[in-house]
Amino acid sequence: xxxxxxxxxxxxxxxxxxxxxxxxxxxxxxxxxxxxxxxxxxxxxxxxxxxxxxxxxxxxxxxxxxxxxxxxxxxxxxxxxxxxxxxxxxxxxxx
Length: 95
Hints:
Helices cover 36% and strands 4% of the residues. The protein has helices at 5-14, 24-42, 73-77; strands spanning 83-84, 87-88.
């Protein structure tokens, strides 16, 4: 697939990038070079390669998943400018 100057202008418009007409030809060559490199990557045999999420195989440390109620309601409400009956008091915004 070869990219021409018309396609470069279309891509620039879609990406909301200002591209001057004299910049289109060099950009088209750059994009064609990138696409040629991607085509080379498609030729690599990756059948026996395991998918990976990191360069180093490691497990993330995880805490125990325990459900608690927190039991810190009073400490949280102490930060509020105004609280009543265990709830935050806020100004009425809808009439």
